[in-house]
Write a structure and sequence with these properties.
single chain; two-stranded antiparallel ribbon
Length: 239
């Protein structure tokens, strides 16, 4: 169990546990003015819960793993925002208004799509099938994510992801192939002066000229940086 300031995440049934990547994305993505948000690969429901804390939006979390769906549903129900979060066993590649029980029309669904996607390729796979599904691109490639996002986003909606730094170009190309262009980028370094490890990226149909920012989690003394504290202080208990 992982306790945050305003909610608790149980994770005993989930292959992927609460981690820094999910917290970073949940705190960084622009959700404040959204009405409808989709969390792809919701896992424990962490990112959906963070989005609910930061907005008044109705949120749908989807996952391919039935155990994760049950766990995320329980975490949502025990939170202050359970009435605004639905968790469903569903593949983003087949999401539709009809399958979500919404009115069928020609309007795209979501103002924001958030995803901490699987990104390991050609690496040793875990004997745990659920963990492999959560970690490897066999189940959701960047191309498939971008294609699905284009179909599901509102005209001004954003797709926000966190991926390994070295795969940022791959994600950019996949997004561009489906008419999505970068609006924000933040390079994440675990330690000040160290090598970048992650990239937070947001994409929309319009795209925006921008300069990537740099976020260091710790300084040279291994203390959390002020920038990192500002980003996550509304969530972590000891910040």
């Amino acid at each position: 169990m992982f306790a945050f300031k305003r909610f608790t995440v149980r994770q005993d049934q989930c292959a992927m546990k609460v981690g820094t990547d999910g917290v970073l994305l949940g705190a960084w993505a622009r959700v404040e003015h959204c009405s409808h948000i989709l969390d792809v690969g919701t896992g424990t429901g962490l990112i959906a819960l963070m989005a609910a804390q930061r907005s008044e939006a109705h949120i749908v979390g989807i996952d391919l793993d039935a155990d994760a769906v049950l766990q995320a549903s329980g975490n949502a129900a025990s939170s202050p925002w359970g009435h605004r979060i639905r968790v469903m066993e569903m593949d983003v590649r087949t999401v539709s208004r009809e399958r979500l029980g919404m009115e069928a029309d020609n309007c795209p669904l979501f103002d924001a799509i958030l995803c901490n996607p699987p990104y390991f390729e050609n690496s040793l796979k875990s004997p745990d099938a659920a963990r492999t599904m959560a970690r490897h691109t066999d189940t959701l490639t960047f191309d498939e994510l971008a294609r699905s996002a284009t179909r599901l986003l509102s005209l001004e909606g954003e797709l926000s992801v966190i991926i390994p730094y070295e795969r940022a170009a791959d994600m950019t190309v996949s997004a561009a192939c489906y008419g999505l262009f970068a609006t924000r980028q933040t390079i994440v370094c675990p330690v000040e002066g160290g090598r970048p490890k992650r990239m937070l990226m947001a994409f929309s149909r319009q795209g925006v000229s921008h300069t990537p920012e740099i976020l260091c989690i710790q300084d040279s003394r291994r203390q959390y940086t002020p920038e990192y504290v500002r980003l996550v202080k509304d969530f972590y208990l000891k910040m």
